[in-house]
Design brief:
mainly alpha, 9 helices, disordered N terminus
């Protein structure tokens, strides 16, 4: 007992100034705390702080801003996906609605078509739904056949390899290569600018319809460029032809002026030379105003040379003296 009391006094005594390396405990531990558990708790907290300082914490929330999600590989050999009745209706009536609403954007045209589709009766929708069902059956048959091929097995291996690489890298993987990443500021399951929920069959069909329309627009743009090139060539040829016609027109105008001047000079000469030759029966003399009718009447006299032989010889004599140049 005495031995225990001495040990207690030594524990309660203040530390000595002799530089001893032993650590003295100044106060006893509470009775409800186990020293072993306390040391373990302190060590655990230190280890936790060390781990938190050594390894950066992962960002909570959405995808890091400015960073693109990786996409899974696309199987280029897979059969063509079937189109739903809704998408078939969109493809069939999109150009019609676009023509009726030339100023509408792509999303506005799609909304109009979606509204029209919802107003269709079951009988009117049946045609599109039956075509979609046939297309789906075709797809399932082709897919079943394709899954038996070696190309499908190779693709699945590549897909699994990519998935493991992505999961080992940053833990993100998209099996579809056609879905664009969404900004974390968007509401859940809703695409910006559209009222169509994402990751749904309707959204994917909408995407396919948009891609098909873009391909059609690119094709139309190429055709229009070719037509513009042809029309530009035609315009150049037309301009060249117009220039030639303008030159010919100018030449003809000059010729007409020269002929008109020559005709006026000839009329004046005829008036001068036939000034003393009155017409038989009327005694009419030529003048600048009636020279044309005067010459027509003289010509009618020449049609009966036997009856007007003397008159004709005199006319010939006068005509031989006229200067035509």
């Amino acid at each position: 007992m005495r031995h225990l009391i001495m040990q207690g006094e030594n524990l309660a005594a203040p530390p000595s100034n002799n530089g001893s390396s032993h650590t003295n405990i100044s106060a006893p531990l509470p009775s409800d705390i186990n020293p072993t558990e306390s040391n373990m708790s302190m060590n655990t907290d230190q280890d936790s702080n060390l781990m938190e300082s050594d390894f950066p914490q992962k960002r909570r929330g959405g995808w890091p801003k400015g960073r693109k999600r990786r996409r899974g590989p696309r199987d280029m050999n897979a059969p063509k996906q079937p189109l739903t009745g809704y998408v078939r209706y969109l493809n069939e009536n999109r150009e019609k609605v676009r023509g009726e609403n030339p100023g509408a954007s792509f999303s506005e045209v799609t909304k109009i078509l979606a509204c029209d589709w919802s107003k269709l009766g079951s009988h009117e929708k049946q045609k599109y739904l039956e075509e979609a069902e046939k297309d789906k059956e075709r797809y399932m048959k082709e897919l079943e056949q394709y899954q038996q091929t070696e190309a499908y097995k190779i693709f699945k291996k590549q897909q699994e390899k990519k998935r493991k690489e992505y999961e080992d890298g940053d833990g993100s993987y998209y099996t579809s290569s056609t879905v664009e990443p969404m900004n974390e500021t968007h509401h859940d399951g809703e695409a910006p600018g559209f009222d169509i929920p994402i990751f749904t069959e309707e959204f994917l069909d909408h995407n396919k319809a948009r891609e098909a329309e873009l391909r059609q627009l690119r094709k139309s743009n190429t055709e229009y460029e070719e037509q513009n090139a042809i029309l530009t060539k035609h315009i150049e040829n037309m301009k060249s032809a117009i220039e030639k016609l303008e030159v010919e027109n100018s030449q003809q105008r000059s010729n007409n002026i020269a002929l008109q001047q020559h005709l006026e000079a000839l009329r004046n000469n005829l008036v001068e030379y036939f000034a003393e030759f009155p017409l038989p029966g009327t005694n009419e003399l030529p003048s600048p105003e009636n020279i044309d009718s005067y010459m027509n009447q003289l010509h009618s006299l020449l049609e009966n040379p036997c009856e007007n032989e003397v008159l004709i010889s005199k006319i010939r004599e006068i005509v031989s003296k006229v200067e035509y140049s």
